[in-house]
Amino acid sequence: MRQSFRRMMTIVRKEWLHIIRDPRTLALVIVLPVMMLFLLGYAVANDVEDIPLAVADLSHTDTSRTLVNKLTVSEFFKYTHSAQSENEILAMMDAGIVKAGLYIPESFGRDVSTGGVGTIQFYIDGSNPTIAQTAQLAAETISQSMSQEILIKRLERSGTGIQLSLPVDARMRYLYNPDMKRMNFMIPGLVAIILQIQTLLLTAFAIVREREQGTLEQLIVTPVRSWELMLGKILPFVVVAFVNVVMTVAVGAIWFGVDVVGSIPLLAGLSLIFLLGSLGLGVLISNISKTQMQAMYMASFIMMPSFILAGLLFPRENMPWLAYYAGYLLPVTYFLEIVRGIILKGANFSTLWIWIWPMAVFSIVVFFASVLMFHKRL
Asked: What are the domain boundaries of the chain?
């Protein structure tokens, strides 16, 4: 056992020399995940707010001003331009100056005050479906809320003397993400995806590089066993990847305000299991590949489905059954649930066990597959 440890540590020292010999590459490896978190965090995780709104209020009544005020204080819309006609609103939307427009005709206030129906026209730029759906939902919700308020006031003024209220009081309570910020959902997922990409790229060239440089034959004739070589190649990268875990989680908490609600030691331990499996998968790719270019393509073949099938951008429950079950073949699918569970919900080990054991099995299987694959090439 002592000899195995010595042989393995020899490989570890050799890999460390490769890593620290090029400080610029090492700095890039450490800084890259943080840069990706910043870029993807702002590009992907932003909530839709402050949609530019143009308003043509021809009514100029308290009712119309109340409606405009309700739209602007909701934070979904930002009153940026005033218009004098419906055509002026359409011209602004054609030019891309605003994304939404509200036209209130002159008769709106009079119709509402006399018990009639006040009609308004709300325009939405549908070129961006995400913004369009958010604007539609916000506008419908706010207008319905105002309609209910007006209806109640009418009934109370009818002379019955009865104080009316809505018959159903539906009170919503949002767990884990009470502000409904998409950032809080996306940042933990981005941490998992970035670590998946980083670990694959770190180790995908480990064996194939030795083969192209002609040093693989030297490793074959040494007494180093297959598992010692695989573990020796993985461990240095585990340290580097673990530094990336700490940095990305810290940036998520300090810069984006997504604090870790659950146990940090639990997150660290489960991250270590995930890193071992992902690094082992990179070594397995390196074993199978004959050139570094081939290794890059195979790594990309795994990274692209990780973005789509793991549940980062799209809910897995809405996917076709084939895509849904294909997601279970990716370790990042389980790690996504674990990271979000610990960071957002404060979930404990027993709660997350349904996701932990498949990820642990995957890590073990991948490592032994790497050993066997290298053994076949001896």
From this structure: 2-45+181-376, 51-156
